[in-house]
């Protein structure tokens, strides 16, 4: 993580590690403008990417996020049956989240004031909206693909391969890859950073990679295991989450 910009993953980690900075950005920013000869190819490529993420509301899947090999998340999601589990690893500490219907459980190795390291059951009504734990359409993709697609500046499809540039200043915060300005703001190159994406034989998005550049770390998002069962077990002996935990959740925590 550099002083100029911070790139983080799932909102739970963004908050718990305190490694993002700057004002919060809307979850779904307007698409980045495209001009000139690239406009038509960019429109075609981005529509392929949007179509490639329709599986989020239709079937179960696995998503993996990797930020420069230092922060990783692995999530199994079944939005249809409202089941999900996530494992977040960063700086040698692991945080686990389990979701069953409207129940949310969290266990972390992080040192959170007032909270222990046992499984805790959260009150969904007290979880900040920017903690982004939801099965609701538009908020139920742990990879955050919509924000990445909306931030594309230019793109071209060559069969299942899509390459182009993305404006990292427009990615904002939420599930999946999150990009936040550091104390010195974003480097100029952040507005046109190279990316590549891959669709599978069924047109589903299976990979999205952002190149490292000018002090910004690399970031990758992968989808797999489409249709695989997602069995989530309620933790034995989970305690009620203490009041002290909730102010530490969310990007403004």
Structure description:
The chain has helices at 11-17, 38-51, 145-150, and strands at residues 5-8, 61-67, 71-78, 83-90, 93-100, 103-108, 120-122, 152-158, 161-166, 178-181, 193-199, 205-210, 219-224, 239-240. It has 253 residues and is mostly beta strands. Mean pLDDT is 84; it is low at 1-31. The protein has three helices and 14 strands. The strands form two sheets. A twelve-stranded mixed beta sheet has the order 8-9-11-12-13-2-3-4-5-6-7-14. A two-stranded antiparallel ribbon has the order 1-10.
End-to-end C-alpha gap: 20 Å
Pattern of helices and strands: EHHEEEEEEHEEEEEEE
Number of strands: 14
Mean pLDDT: 84
Shape: globular
What oligomeric state is this?
single chain
Helix-strand makeup class: mainly beta
State the helix count. 3
Give the % helix: 10-25%
Query: Ranges with pLDDT <50 over ≥5 residues?
Result: 1-31
Cα Rg: 18 Å
Major sheet attributes: 12 strands, mixed
Classify the beta-strand content into a percent band: 25-35%
